[in-house]
Design brief:
The complex is a heterodimer of chains A (554) and B (68). Chain A is an alpha+beta fold and 554 residues long. Helices cover 28% and strands 29% of the residues of chain A. In chain A, a hairpin with a 2-residue loop joins strand 8 and strand 9. Classes of the chains: A alpha+beta (554), B mainly alpha (68).
Chain lengths: 554, 68
């Protein structure tokens, strides 16, 4: 039982289809009501797709799970009216300290890039995030959230998946055009389709402790390499392998502490309060007063499924890819999987795009997953060196970093998760003109402050409004009415014009114009998931249509 | 700019002496740590990833399996 949080119990309800004994067919069935499954449900609903969510439990995630949410997932949740609440509830930290043995190596102050609605990241317990999303699902007539529904088996034939599900009322079947498996790293769904989930296992175990402390303890991120209060184990070959410890703050004065345990540690022994409490006291100092909220031990792996789609079953989040915890890449990238997937499913279900569009989900998100795995492995190799030579190199970096600024960027205690641009995606149309800056085709749109009729409006909010519903694209056009631009269609899909300039959105600060390296006449074709598909220095309907068709896999 | 493979140090004997002297009195472990710091410091000074990649290849022990 936690002191700062009471787990909600969600009601099981028998579905009409089970009661009536009929087999209903649904466009989308989502397996798992974790952060990714719930995001998928909200995203489906926002695009007009009814979604059934099955979860074998009836509460939010238990204990300490994801902590840190980065800008892009916050932006995605903000489309569903949740971003601002998360930021308000969550904790933002700016000062980080890195320690090596007894000494502080350096401290840093994160200076976030200004002019974004959402911050670079926040810390917030996963159960708060899930609870808010469950409430949002409850407000949506298109989301059918079914607790105590356990998927027993899954069969596919042609374009339909048949799911056998167990509830407190017995076993029944339902059908789905598409199944989105968001049931975590140990996904049963993945096992049912015999999906291959391979990669690297790590021997290191981590002890997670959440403690409640006085609010006066500083809101900073502290990372220790080889801390004096937590010495590592000695391997059979005599090599001492130092550990690491991370401390950061979540909401409600709960601090998360991650202790890396030695390879030879006994998880059950390490979890005992008699063992954990003195360890935390040694770390925080004799003055610190704290209460233990939660303790668990985990061992991690870096793996991904070989194909994100098996017939009509699509994998997202940890079910598709599992990374080390360094850099908060699990939930953050899972939310971006959903951002990428749902507009594609909607257009394919509507017959507005061919099924090939769904294959671009694997292309783009497997690419992102590999990038995340690479980043996560790099952090892991720095934090837990696997040989005496790499430990020595790591220590050399840390010694140099005390006095030498050049060594600090080499210190890797986990890198903040940022979106992986789909630079080589087959949906992109290559630039034909020179553009400076970051907004290359395949990149998620950077936010910027604008004004409409004298009122402030964020660019991403304006894009979301302009493309709401069926998965429409946006043509973001700079210049006044003298710059010709009109909506472009590709079959049932429309790219609507959104102007920056007189008569449209005003860019008083010039931030948007600079971020997009725009000039009067510049045109960006923007996907429903707010990624750049193509851009030009002037509007040409035929070119826009060709790019739109390409982006729809038509 | 490719890596310089030809002699580029003035007074090579003097430099070598300075290098050895710099590690005088250090334990093997300390000397190895110093070498690692030296590698990182010089790598930052060079900066050019092509040169560094070539240097990594040159430095790998003779007879060792190819990296990666």
């Amino acid at each position: 039982m936690l002191k700062t949080y009471t787990y909600p119990q969600f009601d099981y309800r028998q579905s009409a289809e089970q009661k009536e004994g009929r087999v209903a067919r649904h466009p989308v069935v989502i397996i798992g009501a974790g952060p990714i499954g719930l995001t998928a449900a909200l995203e489906c609903a926002a695009r007009g797709l009814p979604a059934v969510v099955l979860d074998d439990n009836n509460t939010v995630s238990i204990g300490s799970r994801a902590v840190c949410y980065a800008k892009r997932p916050l932006e995605i949740w903000d489309r569903h009216g949740l971003g601002e609440g998360f930021v308000e509830r969550g904790v933002s930290w700016k000062v980080g300290r890195v320690f090596h043995r007894e000494e502080q190596v350096y401290q840093f102050d994160l200076l976030p890039e200004p002019h974004h609605k959402m911050p670079a990241m926040i810390n917030l317990q996963q159960y708060h995030v899930e609870e808010a999303m469950v409430a949002a699902c409850g407000r949506s007539p298109l989301v059918d959230l079914r607790w105590k529904h356990k998927l027993l088996s899954l069969a596919q034939a042609g374009d339909v998946a048949t799911l056998t599900v167990e509830t407190p009322d017995g076993v029944f079947q339902l059908q789905a055009d598409w199944v989105i498996a968001c049931d975590g790293a140990n996904s049963d769904t993945r096992r049912m389709v015999d999906g291959q989930f391979t990669g690297q296992f790590f021997q290191d175990r981590f002890l997670i402790a959440d403690v409640v402390m006085d609010a006066s303890f500083p809101t900073e991120r502290w990372f220790w390499f080889d801390p004096p209060f937590h010495r590592g184990a000695v391997r059979p070959d005599g090599q001492r392998m130092p550990t690491s410890v991370l401390l950061h703050k979540q909401a409600d004065n709960v601090w998360r502490i991650d202790f890396q345990l030695g390879w030879d540690s006994d998880p059950e022994e390490e979890k005992r309060p008699e063992k954990v409490i003195p360890r935390i006291q040694a770390m925080l100092g004799p003055e610190a007063k704290f209460e233990l909220e939660w303790v668990s031990v985990y061992q991690f792996a870096c793996r991904r499924v070989d194909n994100f789609r098996y017939g009509r079953v699509i994998f997202a989040g940890d079910a598709a890819h599992q990374v080390s915890p360094f850099g908060a890449r699990g939930a953050n990238t899972g939310v971006q999987d959903i951002d990428n997937l749902i507009w594609k499913l909607k257009l394919v279900l509507d017959g507005a795009a061919p099924p090939a569009l769904v294959d671009s989900y694997h292309e783009e998100r497997a690419y992102a997953a590999d990038d995340n795995l690479r980043n996560s492995t790099r952090s892991t190799d720095f934090i837990t060196p696997k040989s005496a030579a790499s430990l020595r190199m790591r220590d050399a970096v840390l010694e140099l970093a005390r006095s030498e600024a050049f060594a600090r960027p080499l210190v890797n205690s986990g890198r903040l998760s940022t979106p992986t641009p789909y630079l080589s995606s087959s949906l992109n149309t290559a630039d034909e003109s020179e553009f400076a800056g970051r907004m290359k085709p395949g990149t998620n749109c950077a936010d910027a402050p604008l004004q409409r009729d004298g009122q402030p409006v964020w660019l991403l909010d304006a894009l979301a409004e302009a493309s709401r519903g069926a998965g429409d694209f946006v043509l973001l056009v700079w210049g006044d009415g003298g710059v010709a631009a009109e909506a472009v269609n590709a079959g049932a899909v429309t790219a609507r014009v959104l102007r920056v300039g007189p008569g449209g959105l005003q860019d008083a600060t010039g931030v948007a114009t600079e971020r997009y390296d725009a000039q009067p006449g510049s045109v960006y074709l923007i996907r429903p998931d707010q990624h750049v598909a193509a851009r030009w220095r002037s509007f040409d309907a035929a070119k826009v249509q060709a790019a739109l068709r390409r982006c729809l896999a038509q | 700019m490719p890596m310089i493979h030809t002699p580029n140090l003035s007074d090579p004997d003097g430099f070598y002496e300075e290098l050895i002297d710099a590690q005088r009195g250090l334990s093997d472990e300390q000397a190895q740590l110093m070498n690692a710091k030296l590698v990182l410091t010089l790598a930052n000074h060079i900066g050019d990833r092509e040169v560094l990649r070539e240097a990594l290849q040159v430095a790998r022990p003779l007879g060792a399996a190819t990296a990666g």
